[in-house]
Amino acid sequence: MNTNRLSDTLAKALNDQMTNEAHNAQIYLSYASWASDKGYDGIANFLFRHSNEERNHMMKFLEYILKRGGKVVVTAIPEPGPDPASINDLFEKVFSSEVENTTRIYNIVDLSHQEKDWATFNFMQWFVKEQTEEETMALDLLGKIKKAGGAEANDDALYNLDKDLAGTPDDAVLAQDTSVENP
Ligand code: OFO
Description:
It is a single chain. This protein is mainly α. It is built from five helices and no strands. It has helices at residues 8-37, 41-67, 87-115, 118-147, 155-166. The site of hydroxy diiron-OXO moiety (OFO) has 8 residues, from helix 1, helix 2, helix 3 and helix 4.
């Protein structure tokens, strides 16, 4: 009896996205490590926490594939890429990476719509909302660095920005506590 409720195409798209969320977690991890090394501990902490969120997204895809009777395929995670050149560059890279991820999410929404897989379509709506929030978060970072002087931000401005981000609330949860309802 076939208990797999995902088409081959959607199973592959969901597995690819699961890997991409892991890739995003690695990107934030590498940026956080870079920021910490440069002495921006507040920014680093913010990015470390965000890396956890991305890992939770990975778990959410993994759990959904299993729930639908599909096969989870765990693969190698691509390298995160080069270090940023500055805090300004870092925040621009965060924004680009979130926009790219939104495009990927929209493609899966589109695919599930084409296949009339309403369960997957419904599941993906959480990510549509999440990406809107994450793009807002990235835009907020760009707004902060712009106020601090952008690419020309001086040490004082960066010091204040670092302090500001150190005080942001910690809303990342542990991966083992995640579920489809509570990502
Ligand atoms: Fe996984 O939410 Fe950002 O990329």
